[in-house]
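Recap from last week: sequence in, structure out.
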Amino acid sequence: MVFLAYLLYLNHLAFSIPVWHKDLECQTDSISKLSEDVEYRFTEEIYKVRTSQNWILQIPIDAINAWIACRLEDWIRHESEITWPERLRAPYVECRDGRVQIAFHITDDFFKIKKEFFVIFVLKLEVINEKILIDLESIRLGRVPFGLNTEWLITKFDDFIKSNYFQKLLNGFLLSNIFELADGRVVKCTKIETKNGYFEVHLVTKLPIN
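Predicted structure tokens:
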């Protein structure tokens, strides 16, 4: 009886919305404007002429999620010609306790009943050997506090799992930490900190070598 109650409780947690998740509609003027502003502001900050080579960029999670809601699907299609699955909504990102959590909102059939649920990727970001390491620590379902078996995820969402972006999330991957600017300067990321509510990115701008 206790075991059955435990299973029912886990089922409730599995189909619960994470407390930090928000549904964002790109059609909302404020969200659409914020998604544009974060692109323009990032470009402006990267190209700004500074008196000090070392600087810090703070990127609010709200701005990142606005960009994801409005622009991620088109960006992925442009970059890789991947078709975004109809049952998968734009992911939502949260920073807490030094980790990045990405919630994928999915609609699918369970025992012939259409259900909505959230698959959570818990990631760690580090700058190592001049690369940004994005490492997957666990995959969770809804509010369940422990990780999932990735084999279940692979069989359930085979069409999207095969995409390069999802494979990278599953296996961990490296990104370059260097941005080469059109005027010859180089911006290098030296550290990324995940604060509650924003990313703090430590950068160095180096002048071109003649």
